């Protein structure tokens, strides 16, 4: 891989002398969806698929960026003196947003840089290609310019800050955190209120994590995501009229049931119900995993999907078809939508012997029902972002 990137780097920028090589993963969330901006728990893991970069510092203030996946945009040129989101920059608004966020947070890089990237996370699939690129850029900047005061958690927060304030998606911290802090063969049990986390080994000797890409992305993703976030904030405000809580994640399901009459709006009520119960499911799922009860973990994944479909309303017909089909296949331990929703991917835990039937049966039926093919990835859990060479 590094060969391919260094060659492109030399072709575009004269030579690759002194260029360095980096990797940043994508992520899949096993359970705990739309809880991160509600002060709840999440349970994602980094993938071995991700984004690679060859990068080198410059001595002037220019920034030159090139994507081997989106080469139709050519070399995107910007300057440290003009860090604004521009439509024509397209994908490059993600790395540029991180440079901007470094500046905003008092870590302005002293010079520009050249960077070529290539990634194997399917775009728009909900596997966090944008967070991967954001954290990658943070790692590149710190390494190229010797910025050693920032931790990986800081880089996750800077990535989220850039996405919220430079790229207009009001996302929580889960994706950037998973990408920055990932650990091979472990998922991350993260309390998003305190940013406390624990690694939980995923030892699935007789099963695999299978991601199914619906290959649909419904248009309102960002606006509907921001709507969900606002509805939760409004529900919280209604509860705070009588309860001393900082977030929906502070509520147990019991306490929610006792106080839900405070939320008058039926839509806000459904959103809050999901956030509270999903947080509890995530806590329960990690406990089940630690106790070796993978069947219970799978049941909680299935319940998570139902809640995301009916109460949070972030699923879509294509994803529901994938999940319904998965639930019928013997050997599927659990299956649910993963990520922000409105298309993207499902995540399933599938017994080894059921992986081929899973892919065959769902692949055929999905094509018949939806009219295009789904894609399947049997994934491994990898490490967080870092310099490789
Ligand atoms: C997207 C967001 F970026 C995350 O912060 C999270 O809210 C997720 O949707 C839903 O769980 O990936």
UniProtKB/TrEMBL annotation:
Pfam family, one: GHMP_kinases_N
Nucleotide-binding as UniProt keyword: yes
Reactions catalysed: alpha-D-galactose + ATP = alpha-D-galactose 1-phosphate + ADP + H(+)
Coiled coil: none
Binding site for Mg(2+): 130, 163
Entry's localization field: Cytoplasm
Span of domain GHMP kinase C-terminal: 286-354
Annotated substrate binding sites: 33-36, 225
Galactokinase N-terminal domain ranges (all copies): 7-56
Site feature Transition state stabilizer, where: 27
SUPFAM superfamilies on file: GHMP Kinase, C-terminal domain (SSF55060), Ribosomal protein S5 domain 2-like (SSF54211)
Keywords, in A-Z order: ATP-binding, Carbohydrate metabolism, Cytoplasm, Galactose metabolism, Kinase, Magnesium, Metal-binding, Nucleotide-binding, Transferase
EC number: 2.7.1.6
Active site location: 175
GO molecular function: galactokinase activity
Binding site for ATP: 67, 124-130
Entry keyword annotation includes Transcription regulation: no
NCBIfam families: gal_kin, PRK05322.1
Function: Catalyzes the transfer of the gamma-phosphate of ATP to D-galactose to form alpha-D-galactose-1-phosphate (Gal-1-P).
Assigned protein family: Belongs to the GHMP kinase family. GalK subfamily.
Protein name: Galactokinase
Organism this protein belongs to: Ruminococcus turbiniformis
